[in-house]
UniProtKB/TrEMBL annotation:
SUPFAM superfamilies: CheY-like, Homeodomain-like
Molecular function GO terms recorded: DNA-binding transcription factor activity; sequence-specific DNA binding
InterPro entries, per the entry: CheY-like_superfamily (IPR011006), Homeodomain-like_sf (IPR009057), HTH_AraC (IPR018060), HTH_AraC-typ_CS (IPR018062), Sig_transdc_resp-reg_receiver (IPR001789), Tscrpt_reg_AraC-type_HTH (IPR020449)
Keyword Acyltransferase tagged: no
Protein name according to UniProt: Response regulator
Bias kind Basic and acidic residues: ranges: 383-392
Taxonomic lineage: Bacteria, Bacillati, Bacillota, Bacilli, Bacillales
Region (Disordered): 383-409
Gene3D superfamilies (UniProt xref): 3.40.50.2300, Homeodomain-like
Gene Ontology biological process terms from the UniProt entry: phosphorelay signal transduction system
Record PTM 4-aspartylphosphate, positions in chain: D54
Domain Response regulatory residues, every copy: 2-119
UniProt source species: Cohnella ginsengisoli
Entry-linked Pfam families: HTH_18, Response_reg
């Protein structure tokens, strides 16, 4: 705590210094000024918590100084010491936020009491300011999540709460346009180097890409970018268009190229974009999104990379039967159980021999193979005698706690931007080899997984999470992860998830513009009634009662 004493008489300033036990009051610095002008410069420099000032001074008097403090530093506590018992001066002191008006000659007890009250008020208000700052910081952290949620909801075919316009008005001061097209940035089209660099920091990659795209779109008021909370590997670009135009704005590809140039400057990597059709906004956003997604999924990954794909450029699909990965499941499963690198390599090579005969491989086909693999791993975990039910179970087909159930979401590309089949084979082989080796360490990994589970819940509380979802994420059985979580944290996993969600909901309820149903959805509850039931169980109040309190 710092104090500034302002008086044009030096002996008065010295008297104030001598009459007070500053250390007892918790005041560590005392500064002096001879008039209001000198004091204002000093206050800007040292930032005191309390100012003790005379009223009648040359250059700039006490009333002027109090008025300046009230306008520029209202948080500072103000005490007046004056030789004039004048109603005009006392009223001016009160009008400008002065807390005490003491008369000369100075009474030590009165001065100490006034300073003690000022210190108490400062500390109380300082705690309040810190709490408000922390609350505002958390709200600012949640605001992008709210926007992502609102615009991701448009993909369901409507604006359920009418909030898209509200967001646009609050962020740009302009109402939403009459039409838009949705473009999709495919995060999985990143280079292998970028994918490896951000393997454990995917949220940072999404944040970076969203910021690059959003900056380009907002610079010319072309649209906004956000993360698609309905799909893990997509950034959404809502690009405003002329509702009378039959085709997208001719400068659209220039805009997307500028975004891709920004990605290359930042990440040394370019990405693929699917471009949807122009549709009415917001009701047509879902249609535009589906066409953009189809353009991405239909692109031929064996052809040279084009980066920007539109539905009409996808071309007719040739008729042929693509080999299903699960048709080779038994050979892959036995190779993994055997744990031999050679057996795993041979099993993967047999499947890849069929893949290499395909004349065309689309993004959709690649995704189906990933889904096949995830389903195979799920079946292996659920097979009797192969579940990670206890530490040290050498039979458990369990991967590392923080490893993805797919070899990689990234599309391996060669120098010409085509799907690299050799790298695809190596990725699957290496993944299954590591998967097999992890079995003997399943128990040890499971014991160390709980802190990672806690972090995962704290980062994904606003999504639909079940115990099975979390167990699958960490390759553990539901029973085992539930038991270990309770042992290590003293709290049931589902109770912990509910508490995190309700804590976030309390913060959101302080914003009167959000409906209860919106708050429920933002923290992961699709059913408003169930959310209200959980909220009341944990807080003793309904969401409405909490908001009113």
């Amino acid at each position: 705590m710092k104090v500034v004493i302002v008086d044009d008489e030096r002996h008065v300033r010295e008297a104030v210094r001598l009459l007070v036990d500053w250390e007892t009051l918790g005041i560590r610095e005392v500064h002096e000024a001879a008039n209001g002008e000198e004091a204002s410069a000093l206050i800007e420099r040292v930032r005191p918590g309390i100012v003790v000032t005379d009223m009648m001074m040359p250059v700039r008097g006490g009333l002027d100084l109090l008025a300046w403090l009230q306008a520029h530093r209202p948080e500072i506590q103000k005490i007046v010491i004056s030789g004039h018992d004048d109603f005009h001066l006392v009223r001016g002191t009160m009008q400008h936020g002065g807390q005490d008006y003491l008369l000369k000659p100075i009474d030590p007890e009165q001065l100490t009491g006034a300073l003690a009250r000022a210190v108490a008020r400062w500390n109380e208000q300082d705690q309040s300011r810190k709490h408000e700052l922390a609350r505002n910081m958390e709200i600012n952290q949640l605001r992008p999540v709210m926007r992502d949620r609102i615009f991701s909801d448009l993909l369901g075919g409507s604006d359920p709460y009418g909030n898209a316009q509200t967001v646009l008005l609050s962020e740009s001061g302009a109402p939403h346009p009459s039409s838009c097209l949705v473009a999709v940035l495919d995060v999985d089209s990143a280079s292998a180097e970028v994918a490896d660099r951000y393997a454990r920091h995917r949220d940072l990659l999404y944040f970076t890409l969203t910021n690059i795209a959003d900056e380009v779109l907002r610079r010319s008021d072309r649209g906004i970018a956000c993360r698609n909370l309905r799909a893990e590997n997509e950034i959404l670009l809502f690009v405003w268009t002329d509702s009378r135009a039959a085709r997208p704005d001719p400068t659209l590809e220039e805009t997307l190229s500028e975004i891709n140039d920004g990605c290359f400057m930042t990440l040394k990597c370019r990405f693929d974009f699917g471009i949807g059709t122009a549709q009415p906004f917001p009701q047509g956003a879902s249609i535009s999104y589906q066409s953009a997604r189809s353009a991405l999924h239909d692109r031929n990954l064996l052809a040279e990379r084009a980066y920007y794909y539109q539905p009409e450029s996808a071309g007719a699909r040739p008729s042929f039967a693509a080999p299903r990965l699960d048709a080779f499941e038994e050979g892959l499963r036995l190779a993994v159980l055997g744990g031999s690198d050679r057996q795993i390599g041979d099993a993967v090579a047999r499947w890849m021999a069929e893949v290499r005969r395909m004349p065309r491989i689309s993004g959709e086909q690649l995704q189906r193979w990933r889904t096949d693999l995830a389903e195979m791993l799920r079946r292996w975990r659920e097979t009797k005698g192969t579940r990670a039910d206890a530490p040290g179970d050498g039979r458990a087909l369990s991967g590392e706690a923080d490893e993805d159930p797919n070899p990689s979401g990234v599309i391996p590309m060669d120098a010409h931007g085509r799907l690299d089949l050799d790298r695809l084979e190596a990725m699957l082989r290496d993944f299954l080899t590591a998967y097999a080796r992890s079995r003997s360490a399943a128990g040890q990994q499971a014991q160390s997984a709980i802190p990672a589970v806690v972090r995962y819940i704290e980062q994904h509380y606003n999504k639909e999470l079940t115990l099975q979802d979390i167990a699958s994420q960490f390759y553990l059985s539901r029973e085992y992860i539930s038991r270990r979580f309770k042992q290590e944290t003293g709290e049931n996993l589902i109770d912990f998830l509910c508490r995190i969600r309700i804590d976030k909901a309390k913060l959101l309820l302080e914003n009167p513009h959000f409906k209860i149903a919106q708050v429920a959805e933002m923290v992961g509850y699709q059913d408003e009634k169930y959310f209200s039931k959980v909220f009341k169980k944990l807080t003793g109040l309904s969401p409405n009662q909490y908001r009113k309190s």
